[in-house]
Amino acid sequence: MLLPLIRMIRALRNYRRNVSELAQLSDREPTDIGLDRSDIPRVAAGTYNG
Fold first, then answer.
1. Contact at 8 Å (CB) between 28 and 3?
2. Complete DSSP assignment for 18-48
């Protein structure tokens, strides 16, 4: 029962770290790789299918 909770906490930490790092990119950098700023949450979550 504890292991799924630990995995969920780790996934949430990874998501937040990824969002934070991607949000620090300049406006031009995401565009250079074909992303909009609105894509950041999906990219961070691993659900982006661009």
1. no
2. HHHHHHTS-SHHHHHTT--GGGHHHHHHT--
